[in-house]
Fold TFIIS-type domain-containing protein.
Amino acid sequence: MALRGIRFCKDCANILYAKEQYDNEGSNRNLIYSCRICEYTEKATKAEDYLVYHRQVRRLAEHVATDYKDYPLDPTLSRSINVSCPRCDHREAVLFHSEKEGGESGMRMTYVCTYRGEDGACGYSWQS
Ligand SMILES: [Zn+2]
Ligand SMILES: [Zn+2]
């Protein structure tokens, strides 16, 4: 499994993509982050990348309800295309009723983004 962190371009704030680059002698591999929108690149050490990866995993764990991550694979759940994922703008989500947290009475609707791409599933969940 590749260790990848998410960094943002200092020039245009788009996501930087990690890639490997050989130095001038062709002997050392360096990990660099490059922007696909502008020409911005920055170098990262393996150790740095490792740290970024772990920080990112922790951040995702806080924001993504891991319980809901596999819900988009459940064919029995309702789907809605009248939504827009707050994280990735994908326009389809599965939805289901869930009880309100904190002892409040009543039901609310939970949505889980169904986006799956080559960089993984979004799985973002939100309530309305
Ligand atoms: Zn850029
Ligand atoms: Zn999404």
